[in-house]
Write a structure and sequence with these properties.
Largest sheet: 6 strands, antiparallel
CATH topology of the largest domain: Jelly Rolls
Strand content: over 45%
Distance between the termini: 47 Å
Low-confidence stretches: none
Structural class: mainly beta
Strand order of the largest sheet: 1-7-11-10-8-9
CATH architecture of the largest domain: Sandwich
CATH class of the largest domain: Mainly Beta
């Protein structure tokens, strides 16, 4: 049985239990807004927001503390080593969770074999993830989210991401790839920067090819220029003439900065789009991908949904 040896009573936070909670257990908030036991379960993680200083059944009015000292004689801790949120509901562990688990949340440090100090703060990663969108399921594409849950900085990293080119005979070769799903709402795009290195996968594109790049809320079409929603996040920008098949796709938002994208009816997506000049390819005869490495960085705010 755990006992709270010390905590700041003036800073104790009252809550109504959404499940049975014992003294000394870690408490979090689930997706329904109920205060329940926290855990780092990979399927449905619930971050700890406090340690229960009173216990009771579901529906009871209890209190939690954000910092203090707990004693639990059933534990066998290694003094001086950190304690983490466990996969066991409400519990701590000194085994650092693996990357395969949903969250790695440090809780405090062991003072003795049975005592541990806690100081729970809202992790930056949790704030950054609040209200964020989702990276598209594309091989080689990953996302890192930064921010305070209001202003979002989304950094998409491309590692050998393929863009399969399609031929519009006599017009252009084009490729578009969805890379990010914004949450539902009116998305204010503050600005974006694209920093990519490009190569090609085959002789279907000439070694000295010319093209264009844009980032928008729709995928590239079969026209000889990117237009409207194909380039409403970063406007169409010419890529430098390739040398030995390699070039760059470096561009930034200009006229598209501080623009609201209305995703209140249907949430907006983000696409990276490419064109290759018609004279510089034969992707019908020889299939070819553009291969991208680098980053797309976007700063945005969700103004709200209805």
């Amino acid at each position: 049985m755990a006992n709270i040896l010390r905590y700041e009573r003036q800073s104790a936070v009252p809550f109504q239990a959404g499940a049975t909670v014992a003294v000394g257990e870690l408490v979090g908030v689930n997706g329904s807004g109920s205060f329940v036991l926290a855990d780092n379960n990979a399927a449905t993680p619930i971050r700890a927001v406090g340690v229960a200083v009173t216990g009771g059944a579901s529906g009871a009015n209890l209190a939690m503390a954000l910092s203090g000292v707990v004693e639990d004689t059933t534990l066998s801790l290694t003094p001086g080593q950190p304690v983490y949120l466990s996969a066991t509901a409400g519990a701590i562990t000194q085994t650092k969770p693996t990357a395969a688990e949903a969250v790695i949340q440090p809780i405090g440090i062991a003072l003795s074999a049975t005592k541990w100090a806690f100081n729970i703060v809202c992790p930056e990663a949790a704030l950054a993830a609040t209200g964020a969108g989702a990276v598209a399921a594309v091989t080689g594409l990953t996302v890192a989210e930064y921010g305070d849950g209001i202003v979002h900085k989304t950094v998409l990293t491309f590692e050998d991401v393929d863009f399969a080119l399609t031929d519009e005979a006599g017009v252009v070769a084009y490729a578009g790839q969805k890379v990010y799903d914004f949450p539902a709402g009116a998305i204010l795009m503050l600005g974006a920067v694209l920093d990519l290195d490009l190569t090609k996968s085959s002789a279907g594109v000439n070694d000295d090819w010319d093209g264009d790049v844009g980032v928008g809320t729709a995928t590239a079409g079969n026209n000889n220029a990117l237009a409207t929603t194909e380039q409403d996040i970063i406007p169409t920008t010419a890529t430098p003439q390739a040398v030995a098949g390699a070039t760059t796709a470096n561009a930034q938002s200009t006229a598209t900065e501080n623009k609201v994208h209305d995703g209140t009816g249907t949430a907006k997506d983000c696409f990276v789009n490419f064109l290759v000049d018609d004279a510089d390819h034969d992707v019908t005869g020889t299939a070819c991908n553009l291969i991208a490495n680098g980053t797309l960085t976007m700063h945005w705010i969700n103004l709200g949904d209805y």
